[in-house]
Every structure is written in C-alpha cells, then in structure tokens.
C-alpha cells in the first residue's frame, strides 16, 4: 500500500448517481427532490453531467447519464494534487482507465470505477433533508475480491484521517472520512460471484418508513424490506437503500 503525500490530501467527496441516458432527466428530478437541491445546467460533451446544488452549503451529489450499461454509483475524490492522488491509488492497486485534463477515472482492484478530481474549496456539508441524508456509496464486492478491496480502500485513505472498521453486520466494512466530509464508503461482501457494482445509501435513523413513503410519493418503488435497511428503485431504474444509520452522525 502507498500513503498519500500531504499535497494529495482528499478535501471533499462526491457521490455520483449514474443512470442510463434514457432515464437521466427522470433520475435528476427525483434525486433533486430527495436531496432538496436544484439541478445545475448540464455540462460535458453530451450534456451528461449535472450537479445537485443545495442552498447554503456545498454540493456533494452529482449525476451522470451513461450509455451501454445500467448505471449505478461511484465516488469522486477531490484532492489538492490530483496527479499525486492518482499515483498513490495506482501504487495501492488501482489502474487508470482514462486521464483527462485535470482529472482521471480509475478502477479499484475489484473493478469499481472512481474519479480523482480537483478540490475547489468545498467545505460546508449539506444538512439532513426530511429525516434522511445521502451520505454513503456502497460497493458490492464478489467474495473472491472482498478482502483485497477492503485492504485497498483502507490503505489508500489511512493517512487521510479516514477510519476503517468492520461493519455492524457480518460481510460489511466501513471506510469513513474525517468529520465534515460528506460521503463515506461501505463495502458489502456479496453472496455470489458477479461483477462489482455500487449503489447509494441514505441514513434515515428510525424513520425508514416515513422516508420510504416520501420517496414512493416522488416516484420510487419498493423492492425489498430487510431488518436494517429497505431497498427501493428510483424512477430511472436504479437501486438504492434506506438504512437505519443516524442521519445526524
């Protein structure tokens, strides 16, 4: 594992909502309503990127229209020195998928995509909205890659003030950022061998049922109810979870 140089310090994180281009507008409208934000003007060669802009705080959720896949989620890490972050990630086991002007797309050892992007001074975390907070990207990892993936994310971020610990349930591992950063990582060991994927999680505390009702009124559909989380599908077909974690902490 390779530690990040001080200049590569991760200063902010974004959760990306990745949805097929055909349902991108529906997805943006839904997630803007869920997070009480407004959708920025589109950017990118095909208008495939937007930011969900909160009032009185810095954004921490973006959305991307994708083609050729079902979408999912990924993380953006905002670093003071993007090349240094990329170098450290690759030394830890990642590989560069695409190098753009000022930012890069990388792939974790298990195959999960993530991005290294410049930090633009973001520091004010948005508040919880209607009893929930979108604050986690869950990486769903096949059993054969799970230990390596846990070691990768834990080692890459260890010197950045992030903490690494087993989750409260077997088969889960949390890599949590320092106080003030808005998005954390949950690694989930799948029960079968399949490609790695990722989805969004919202912390709802004891109010999962109330948050579920609000989301269903906005267009989500119920997929499954488990003891500690509920699975929903957004209007663009993307799966996500409501969890019993405290949205304030």
Give a structural overview.
- The protein is an alpha+beta fold and 249 residues long.
- Helices cover 19% and strands 37% of the residues.
- The chain is built from four helices and 16 strands.
- The protein has helices at 24-35, 82-91, 143-157, 208-217; strands at residues 10-20, 38-39, 49-53, 61-66, 72-79, 95-99, 104-107, 113-118, 133-141, 163-166, 172-176, 184-189, 197-203, 221-225, 229-233, 239-243.
- The strands form two sheets. Strands 2-3-4-1-5-8-7-6 form an eight-stranded mixed beta sheet, covered by helices on one side. The chain has an eight-stranded mixed beta sheet with strand order 10-11-12-9-13-16-15-14, covered by helices on one side.
- A hairpin with a 3-residue loop joins β14 and β15.
- The longest helix has 15 residues, at 143-157.
- It is globular.
Quick recap of the structure?
The relative contact order is 0.19. The protein is an alpha+beta fold and 249 residues long. It is built from 4 helices and 16 strands.
């Amino acid at each position: 594992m390779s530690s990040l140089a001080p200049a590569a310090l991760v200063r902010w994180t974004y959760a990306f909502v990745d949805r097929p281009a055909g349902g991108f507008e529906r997805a943006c409208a839904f997630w803007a309503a869920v997070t009480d934000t407004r959708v920025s003007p589109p950017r990118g060669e095909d208008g495939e990127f937007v930011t969900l802009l909160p009032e009185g705080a810095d954004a921490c959720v973006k959305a991307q229209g994708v083609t050729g896949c079902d979408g999912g989620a990924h993380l953006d890490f905002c670093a003071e020195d993007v090349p240094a972050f990329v170098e450290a990630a690759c030394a830890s086991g990642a590989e560069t998928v695409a190098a753009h002007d000022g930012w890069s797309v990388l792939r974790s050892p298990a195959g999960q995509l993530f991005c290294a992007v410049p930090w633009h001074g973001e520091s004010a975390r948005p508040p919880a909205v209607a009893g929930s907070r979108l604050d986690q990207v869950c990486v769903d990892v096949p059993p054969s890659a799970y230990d390596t993936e846990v070691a990768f994310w834990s080692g890459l971020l260890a010197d950045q003030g992030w903490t690494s610990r087993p989750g409260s349930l077997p088969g889960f591992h949390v890599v949590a950022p320092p106080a003030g950063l808005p998005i954390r990582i949950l690694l989930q060991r799948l029960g079968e061998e399949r490609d790695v994927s990722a989805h969004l999680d919202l912390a709802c505390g004891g109010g999962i049922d109330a948050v579920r009702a609000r989301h269903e009124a906005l267009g989500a559909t119920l997929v499954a109810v488990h003891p500690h989380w509920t699975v929903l599908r957004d209007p663009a077909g993307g799966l996500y979870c409501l969890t019993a974690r405290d949205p304030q902490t």
